[in-house]
Amino acid sequence: MARLRRHQLTALEAYLADEDEQWLFERGLHLAAEATLDVCHHLSAALRLPAAEDYTQAIERVADAGILPAAFAARFRQVAGFRSLLVQACIEIDPGRCMGC
Q1: What confidence category does residue 95 fall into, taking pLDDT thresholds of 50, 70 and 90?
Q2: Would you say residue 3 lies in a domain?
Q3: How far is 62 from 68, CA to CA, in rounded Å?
Q4: Rounded to two decimals, what is the model's pTM?
Q5: What is the chain's mean pLDDT, rounded?
Q6: Residue 30 sits in which domain range?
Q7: pLDDT tens, position by position, 23-44
Q8: Number of structural domains found in the chain
Q9: Which of 84, 35, 42 is closest to 62 using CA atoms?
Q10: CB 99 within 8 A of CB 15
Q11: What is the three-class DSSP state of 48?
Q12: Radius of gyration of the chain (CA)
């Protein structure tokens, strides 16, 4: 996250013009999303909650256990979908749409 924060003020035009900058954001966000979602799976397992079939369900399990506030979990569920977009090579990412998410 520290590496991403150093680039958070990058203008959209500069971001769009620099494929290395795009890669940094996309892979950095992918890794951060995957790591945080994996924590939800690990917490679910450690608490012996019902097994989650996917990342969204893992977030719900942890929220239902009271570890994540419900309002945060509702927003955090979007991370699961965003992570899926990042890892599927067949989907073209629209950087203009993702900026400011």
Answers
A1: low
A2: no
A3: 6
A4: 0.66
A5: 82
A6: 10-98
A7: 888 888 888 888 888 898 899 8
A8: 1
A9: 42
A10: yes
A11: coil
A12: 15
